[in-house]
Amino acid sequence: MTPKMAQPRFGPLSPRPAPFYSPSANALQRFRFPGSVIQLHPQHKRLLSQRPPKPHSSTYRKPERWDPYAELMSDKEKEWIIRLQMIQLQSENPHLDDYYYQEYYKRMEAKLAEEEKRGDWAKRETPKLTTPYVTKTEYYTPVVHIEGSLGQVAVSTCFSPRRAIDTIRGHSPDEDGRHPRLEVHIEKLFSALLEVEEAARRKVYVSVEEKQQLLQDMQRKVEQVYSQIRHTNPQESNEEFLPCLLVSKGKRLLARLLPFLSHDAALHVLTMVTTHLPMLISKDLDEALPVLYAPLRDVVSALSFSQLVGVLKEFTVTVPETNETILTLACQNEFGLSLLYALLSQGERLLSSNVPMEPNIGDFETWTDTVFQVAQQLSKASLVEPLFLPSNLLTLFCRYLDKRTVHQLKSNIESASGYLAVVS
Amino acid sequence: MNYMPGTASLIEDIDKKHLVLLRDGRTLIGILRSIDQFANLVLHQTVERIHVGKKFGDIPRGIFVVRGENVVLLGEVDLDKECDQILQRVSIEEILEEQRIEQQAKQESERLKLQAVKERGLSIPKADTLDDF
Q: Which domain holds residue A188?
């Protein structure tokens, strides 16, 4: 029996609260929910537990006749509405779903802490939002597709009074069955990748035990995505990566996945990209290849000398259809050229550093041969502007070539890129 | 004063006298008896109040069920302040007459405006072709 019910209700005119009764406390009292674990921000909880402001006792109400129509709306109905509104506020990831609420209370906390520190006791009574807790909703299908019917039916319960029906659903047959499946597949992989990236962001805030779990999850997902990209179609196992890579979103997916891959996996990707460079270049209609440059460059900077030489050797392979080397094709494409430059730059860096390289037999030969071939190609062909021109390229060429050739190279590179290729 | 999220805050206003302004310009005064999640309202002992100048008149309407989307605003009526009013209460017939006169005057001025505009070769689109909300 709440104090409110003990008092006689007064007519159509509203009863003024008695000094000991405060509407806000009453509302909270009436609507107590089972198993409540309040899902409020701690600062919010603190504010609510503070004594509510004293109601005005100065105004005195003269008692009026009893209101026979009072309490038309039962408590159950009121609870129903509150429950409905509360459901919208629940979330498993409050920082994502209710960013502004969380941020607001975080800042308020910080400000109050600051004020307390400075000894400022001016308390401001602002209206506070009371959010009684409601147990987490069970899942239900908001939109039902009845077999054999053309449309969909929206199921409304108190958990969701309205749910928009999608006008386009995947029940209609596609003319071209192959393509959407690949793109849908890539989308699914992308979702998995986004989760990995989210986990990577979150692991900074998370405790040590959770971090372990998080890392394991991440690793599992990364491997899943990697193997899926590699073999989209289990039967066509000789075409690794290619189906995904030919779609521009697939390139973006791989570009974002690369930072998470192990060194060996990344090297495999790099080698494969180089081997299939002609096809990738020729089929890159959206010009999405450059998106792969940055992550691949990072992979290149971690290569050992032998690995580097292995990749570089791929460039000298001749493409059967056009009878040209991959090298020639690369020079005419900004991504290809930039990749080539990155590889050469890495080689030069490794050579000029004092770190012992442990090369395999024949590595140096392959290296110098390739450099010569590259120099030849670069000096005679017209070059496109690369995405990035490393500064130590000419230093590299100076090692192996005569001054005249170097000079010619320099002018050719410069005229293409508009940069000045600096010789140290 | 603490408040609850969304329409739930109306729960505290139940069984209290409210003034409701509707989108079509009507003013209703009644006791709020019931609400739902869309803020549809059930008003009891409702009175439609018409204001013309400093005069007003009440037309008793009984029970109103108002669809939530048609409400512009609503608020609790302070019964103390309701007693001391500056406005003059008149009978229904009088206020309806006043309203009619006001409407006429408005229409007349609109007509003159339209005529003046037409004379100058301009055109103003009619109100019903505009999106009025």
A: 179-261
